[in-house]
Amino acid sequence: MAPSRTPLETEIRRRIALAGPMPVRQFMTLCLTHPQHGYYMTRDPFGRSGDFITSPEVSQVFGELIGLWAASAWHAMGQPENVRLVELGPGRGTMMLDALRASQVVPAFRQAIVAHMVEISPALQERQQQTLSALDIPTMWHQSFDEVPDGPAIILANEFFDALPVNQAIKQLNGWYERVVEIDADDNLTFGIANEVIPLFDQLLPPAVRDAPLGTIYEWRTDNLPLALGQRVVRQGGAALVIDYGHVRSDQGETLQAVGGHAFVNPLTTPGEVDLTAHVDFEAFGLAAESMGARLYGPIQQATLLHNLGIDKRAAALKAYASPDKAAAVDEAVNRLIGQGRTEMGKLFKAIAIANPTLGPLPGFEA
Ligand code: SAH
Questions:
Q1: End-to-end CA distance of the chain
Q2: Residue 351: which of 163, 76, 148, 160 has the closest Cα?
Q3: Which position among 26, 134, 265, 355 has the lowest Cβ density within 10 Å, counted as fewest Cβ atoms?
Q4: How many CB atoms lie within 10 A of CB 200?
Q5: Is 363 near ligand 1, meaning CB less than 6 Å away?
Q6: Contact 240, 157 (CB under 8 A)
């Protein structure tokens, strides 16, 4: 009997039959954002009952502190009368909701905000509209960052960049080859190696990776979004705060992973039904933004950012009027956000900010 296949697997096989082995980047793009069958296009994967849980879903404290960060950034920008508060990949819209609530403590900032949600998924756009419907903040939705209108902007992104597709290359005797998805002799999807070497690839690699042993995998992104963010804050004013998991230095190694039902799974088995991510290369991100003239802050650990922004005080305030059960839940959530363990988010996640160099100092990145 033929094995049951997801609709997206059928589509991927059709494309491979037509055009040959598919680069990993294209596979990841289809898995996440194919218009009908992409993972994000059809579902709400977040929360305890979903596939994974993100910081804003762990505790309202996260989004509130990000909102206070945004208020300080607005201050550092010279308190422009209008500012675009942009979020990339807002999921359920929880972080924006909590950030906007926290912004009430700086009424002039709140007054200045037009919110912009950059979200490719129609299902999640709808979800975000519900989340924000009770607020009196003008809000616009866009499919991509380049649709956000001109003007000074504060740009936020949590667990967005890891969802952008990566390219993979693998080192062989005579050079680096693109890694692909193909069909093996038993008719299964499998990882393979493209037929032709990538010309002059060595020259693009960070020096530490050039002499890597045979079989080494190297990942990189080609979306140019770090460049676009750098250019935007330099030309039009503002700052961007990006939080994600990844490495502080560009490095070799495969980080592509699939998660479904809070567990790691094989990325090739149920395309379109599991989340695919890959680590963010914060060094590459920073270099790209700096090359556009932006000033760089960090990367630092998420725990450091949240400490600097006052997570302890905020948690204490929440607990002051809470029942013992609620207070314990606040502690547990905060610990998840700042804990240093492998299953906690404090050390695993990093924060980086970029800003127009004329801005005063940004909070959160003090040593
Ligand atoms: N920031 C949210 C969600 C993270 S998941 C949180 O922390 O909970 C990644 C988000 O990015 C989802 O909302 C997904 O639909 C969106 N997304 C993924 N690829 C995208 C793309 N290419 N353009 C715009 N949004 C994208």
A1: 61
A2: 160
A3: 134
A4: 9
A5: no
A6: yes
Instruction: Please write the tens of the pLDDT for every residue from 284-296.
Output: 999 999 999 999 9
99 C-alpha to ligand 1 centroid (Å):
17
pLDDT value of residue 3 = 66
pLDDT at residue 220 greater than cutoff 80 = yes
Tell me the sheet residues that pair with 240: 155, 354
Q: What's residue 2's pLDDT?
A: 58
Q: Which residues neighbour 329 within 8 Å (Cβ) at sequence distance 6 or greater?
A: none
89 lines ligand 1 (CB under 6 A): yes
pLDDT-derived band at 44 (thresholds 50, 70, 90) equals confident
> Phi/psi of residue 22, each to 5°?
-105, 125
Regarding the beta carbon of 281 and ligand 1, being less than 6 Å apart is answered no
Domains of the chain (ranges plus CATH)?
Answer: 55-162+224-247+274-355 (3.40.50.150)
pLDDT by residue (tens digit) across 181-219?
999 999 999 999 999 999 999 988 988 899 999 999 999
Question: Does residue 160's CB lie within 6 angstroms of at least one atom of ligand 1?
Answer: yes
Say yes or no to pLDDT of 360 above 70: yes
Structure tokens given for 275: 């989340």
* Minimal-distance CA residue to ligand 1 atom 11: 89
Mean pLDDT of 328-344: 95
Instruction: Name the band, by pLDDT with cuts 50, 70 and 90, for residue 1.
Output: low
Determine the Cα–Cα distance for residues 278 and 21; give it in Å rounded to an integer.
Answer: 21
Verdict on whether the full-model pTM lies above 0.90: yes
Angle, helices 282-291 vs 225-236, to 10°: value is: 40
Mutate to test the pocket of ligand 1, among 25, 37, 40, 129 (most ligand atoms within 8 A of CB): 40
What distance in angstroms lies between residue 362's CA and the mean position of ligand 1's atoms? 25
Does 121 contact ligand 1 (Cβ within 6 A)?
A: yes
| Sign of the C-alpha dihedral computed for residues 63, 64, 65 and 69 taken in this order | positive
CA 87 to centroid of ligand 1, rounded, Å: 10
